[in-house]
Design brief:
Blueprint: H1 8-22, E1 35-39, H2 51-69, E2 73-77, E3 79-80, H3 84-97, H4 102-105, H5 107-121, H6 124-132, E4 142-143, H7 147-162, E5 166-176, E6 181-183, E7 188-203, E8 211-216, E9 227-230, E10 244-246, E11 253-258, E12 270-273, H8 279-288, H9 315-328, E13 332-345, E14 353-362, H10 364-376, E15 381-383, H11 387-396, E16 401-402, E17 404-405, E18 415-417, E19 423-425, H12 429-440, E20 447-448, E21 452-453, H13 455-459, H14 462-465, H15 474-479, E22 482-488, H16 492-507, E23 512-518, E24 521-523, H17 539-546, H18 548-558, E25 565-567, H19 569-591, H20 608-629, H21 633-661, H22 665-686, H23 691-702, H24 724-746, E26 755-760, H25 764-781, E27 783-789, E28 797-802, E29 805-810, H26 817-842, H27 845-850, H28 853-881
Parallel strand pairs: 1-2, 3-4, 9-11, 15-23, 22-23, 24-25, 26-27
Antiparallel strand pairs: 5-6, 5-14, 7-8, 7-13, 9-12, 10-11, 14-16, 17-21, 18-19, 18-20, 26-29, 28-29
């Protein structure tokens, strides 16, 4: 007998080590079965499990457990990412507590300190993934800085450099003045900021009293201006094109150029051009040969290129000083409040500064061609398909990828500089020295580049580097390309696109056949989770409280393709109750003497009710498998929930109680065996979603010698299971009882009232069904009687349609009909008002323009719910109208 209550923590602690130690998670290439492989999106080594991880890894584990049960040779490749900037920040914060910086330690000692931190704390996330039930092959766990992956990174860098696809250039980059490193466009977040638009007058050379007015949100950059641009078709400035303005506070002559970048409709139509501190201005400057004057250092303080009074000032302090000096000179036309987007570093949260620096770049445009063709031709398919448009939009407009980072933790760029600055790019220092000796004709000392590679560079190699590349390993040959990638939409560009670039280039094949994109996990109101809002839901706390199975099933049930997951603790509690329902059903079966009988043939059952449940099990199994294979995890969860809670527990168990309590021993034996078989099938079907409780129940049902469910085969249901006649008959009973229950609820019939059901215009088939199942109907619908009606409908009776027949329920003696009509009318009127209010709100353009998408969606959902509730009430009113 099972314990009285299901204890998730005890069961999880019991089975996970058993699964892992038994080798159940390892692939089985020796079977020759068709491979199914997934690479885990490597979580940051600094990380701990958040709800996005929980959703992503639950979906992966459902797929992995399902295909393992289907007999595939499954590899789920785990590992973690070294997370360059994030990890360095963690260790630097530790040093700060000791009143030290990384510079106090020096590069080598600092790197040793990071490795020590990784050894001590880096395993947190993988331990937490085990708690979720993730069935990765942990024996193959990789780390993006381990020696094998580091060798792959060096080989890729050198190969791309020698093909001209990696190059070094002085260009504007997003500079993070807090972290002292360049970051890519994808690592920049735009924050809406209340600022100002300053309109400055620049004097026209040789024409005293005439000015050209330019507007800026960043007055500090004016000290680096090297031009003013006006639109070539703007008649106001035709005579000024080719002339010069005098840059205030500096005195530099700057040309006035005609360029379409200037918008005549915006501000004065003239724009200041600062090529060294603005990306658009950089392009204008390049078109017109304007010099680049960089006025800031790496701390975003003004440097020696700024006039002496401003040198050393922080950029924002310089802004105040420059505005004050311009006002004192009478050169401020006006100042306007201005709401605008200011780019910030996603890690440091400080405003980034466009900075002219030497950086390494990947020619992403050339590498993007093969992935674009792969998605166009269907070699890789996105699910949901609309994400392909997002992929194409970004890939077809891709910019050079800045891959160098001015930090210490990461893959150091394999480039060395000779005495004259000549660059030698090789996989090892020895190879670089040999190349240098050949170049110079003598041995020379080399200096290695100080920068490290963007973390996403090594992550881009993940699908093949983890399988042993550049070595041609058996695993690489067998499991690449992988079957599916499961990831969030927020890293389509960071990671998915770059893996496709590298996979297509180095493997000649896409890295995955399918990309399943899941949505964000939000709170129950659709708000994005954030610490500042106080609405973060911790998956580990939910696992502690309700168990991993309840959390996993909740996430699967809410994972509708293309829709964000709206999570609430109450939903997890509800699916914990689902686990309890299943647990109690097994305990009931134990007490009723039901056992899993080996050799039982479900096709041999004779009782109608047993034929019905056998067919229902087979139908649920087929639909669950189809849903998982189509990445419709919510449909898989919904199918199993409705079958287990509704069909099996609420109906079949209730239908069979009289049989088990009766005297027909053959019927009892068949029913006990059918219940045992059905429970065995249920735990197989539920296992990919709820692995822990199902493994515990399976061990109880089948015994420890039957083998673990984690490596069991997925049930196969041939065409011989199920009986259409039995299905139609028992479904008729279910619908009859459900309709009576619905009418009782709608009309507020007291629970203890025993009504007399009359059935009018019943067909011979319905009459026969009633005769066979009258006792069940009476008990489950709480009826005093259930008879056929051949005459007139009595007064005070409500009616409902069931197929060809009309169900008649006299309720006038137990319900005040007039009072009930008035109550229902009030409820309808209340809902009318609510629906009208929502409709007005959703029809208001100002509301739609200002409201967040999740707020609009919430209103739309509430409108749908209210309309459905009103429809039910109107149906009940219509029933009463006929009384």
């Amino acid at each position: 007998m099972l314990e009285k209550t299901f204890n998730p923590a005890a069961v999880e602690a019991k089975f996970y080590p058993r699964w892992e130690e038994s080798g159940a998670f390892r692939p089985r290439p020796e079977t020759g079965a068709e491979p199914f492989s997934i690479v885990i999106p490597p979580p940051n080594v600094t990380g701990s499990l958040h709800m996005g991880h929980a959703l992503n890894n639950t979906i992966q584990d459902i797929l992995v457990r399902y295909w393992r049960m289907r007999g595939r040779d499954v590899l789920w490749q785990p590992g973690t990412d070294h997370a360059g900037i994030a990890t360095q920040m963690v260790v630097e914060r530790q040093l700060a507590l000791e009143q030290k910086t990384r510079h106090d330690l020096g590069r080598e000692k600092f790197i040793e300190r990071v490795w020590a931190w990784k050894a001590e704390s880096g395993g947190t996330i993988t331990r937490q993934l085990r708690r979720l039930g993730a069935s990765c092959d942990w024996s193959r766990e990789r780390f993006t800085m381990d020696e094998g992956l580091s060798a792959a990174v060096r080989k890729v860098f050198v190969a791309l450099y020698k093909k001209g696809l990696i190059y070094k250039d002085k260009r504007l980059v997003n500079w993070d003045p807090k972290l002292h490193t360049a970051i890519s466009d994808l690592e920049v977040e735009n924050h809406e900021t209340k600022g100002h638009l300053w309109h400055f007058r620049y004097p026209i050379e040789g024409e005293e009293g005439r000015f050209i007015v330019v507007a800026t949100t960043r007055p500090e950059t004016m000290l680096g201006d090297t031009g003013v641009a006006v639109h070539p078709d703007d008649p106001r400035y035709k005579d000024l094109v080719g002339r010069h303005a005098i840059l205030p506070l500096v005195g530099r002559r700057i040309p006035i150029v005609a360029d379409e970048h200037a918008d005549p409709e915006t501000g004065s139509g003239a724009v200041k051009i600062t090529p060294a501190h603005d990306f658009n201005d950089f392009e204008v400057g390049r078109r017109h040969g304007l010099p680049l004057v960089s006025i800031m250092d790496f701390d975003a303080r003004l440097n020696e290129n700024a006039p002496e009074p401003y040198r050393g000032l922080d950029r924002f302090e310089a802004r105040k000083r420059i505005v004050a000096d311009m006002e004192a000179a009478g050169l401020v036309e006006k100042i306007e409040p201005h709401l605008h987007m200011v780019p910030h570093g996603d890690r440091s949260a400080v405003p980034i500064e466009p900075m002219l620096t030497d950086q390494w770049f990947v020619d992403a445009k050339k590498l993007a061609a093969a992935p674009i063709e792969a998605v166009e031709s269907g070699k890789t398919v996105f699910v949901p398909k609309q994400w392909e448009n997002t992929f194409f939009e970004w890939m077809r407009n891709i910019q050079p990828w800045t891959i160098s980072r001015q930090i210490w933790w990461g893959h150091r760029i394999p480039a060395w500089y000779g005495p004259d600055g000549h660059i030698f790019v090789e996989e090892t220092e020895a190879e670089a020295l040999a190349a240098a000796e050949k170049h110079y004709g003598r041995k020379v000392d080399l200096r290695q580049d100080e920068d490290v590679l963007d973390t996403w560079f090594s992550s881009a190699l993940w699908p093949f580097s983890t399988l042993g590349w550049p070595e041609q390993t058996p695993e690489l040959a067998r499991y690449y390309p992988t079957s599916v990638l499961v990831t969030g939409f927020d890293i389509i560009f960071f990671w998915v696109a770059r893996m496709m670039m590298m996979g297509c280039h180095f493997m000649g094949e896409v890295p995955f056949r399918t990309v399943y994109i899941h949505a964000l996990v939000r709170d129950e109101r659709g708000q994005k989770m954030s610490k500042s809002k106080g609405n973060v839901i911790d998956p580990l706390q939910l696992i502690d409280k309700y168990g991993a199975d309840a959390l996993r099933f909740t996430l699967a049930a809410l994972a509708v393709q293309g829709r964000d997951v709206k999570l609430s603790e109450s939903r997890v509690e509800g699916y914990r109750n689902f686990a309890t329902k299943l647990w109690n059903a097994v305990r009931y079966a134990d007490m009723a003497g039901c056992r899993l009988e080996r050799g039982f043939d479900p096709a041999s059952v004779r009782l109608t009710v047993n034929k019905w449940i056998v067919g229902a099990v087979a139908d649920a199994g087929r639909r669950t498998g189809e849903a998982i294979e189509a990445f419709k995890f919510n449909e898989a969860a919904g199918t199993l929930y409705q079958f287990v809670w509704g069909t099996f527990c609420d109906w079949y168990i209730e239908f069979t109680k009289p049989i088990l309590a009766g005297g027909d021993e053959a019927a009892k034996a068949e029913t006990r065996a059918t219940i045992g078989w059905a429970l065995g099938e249920i735990v197989h079907l539920l296992h990919p979603l709820m692995p822990f409780i199902t493994e515990e129940i399976w061990e109880h049902l089948a015994g420890s010698d039957a083998g673990m469910l984690v490596v069991a085969r997925w049930p196969h249901y041939g065409g011989g299971l199920g009986d259409r006649g039995a299905e139609a008959e028992m479904d008729w009973v279910v619908r009859l009882v459900s309709t009576v229950r619905a009418v009782r609820s709608e009309m507020n019939v007291p629970p203890g009232a025993q009504l007399a059901l009359l059935i009018k215009d019943a067909s011979p088939e319905s009459r026969a069904r009633l005769e066979r199942h009258r006792d069940l109907v009476l008990r489950l619908a709480r009826l005093a009687s259930a008879d056929l009606l051949d005459g007139e409908v009595p007064r005070g009776a409500v009616q409902a349609v069931l197929d060809e027949a009309t169900l008649v329920l006299p309720i006038g003696d137990v319900v005040d009909l007039a009072k009930e009509k008035a109550r229902l009318a009030r409820e309808v009127q209340k809902l009318d008002g609510e629906i009208d209010r929502i409709a007005k709100k959703l029809g208001n353009e100002q509301f739609l323009a200002k409201a967040k998408p999740e707020v609009v969606e919430e209103q739309q959902e509430r409108q749908s719910e209210a309309e459905a509730a009103r429809a039910k009430l109107r149906e009940a009113l219509a029933r009463l109208a006929s009384v």
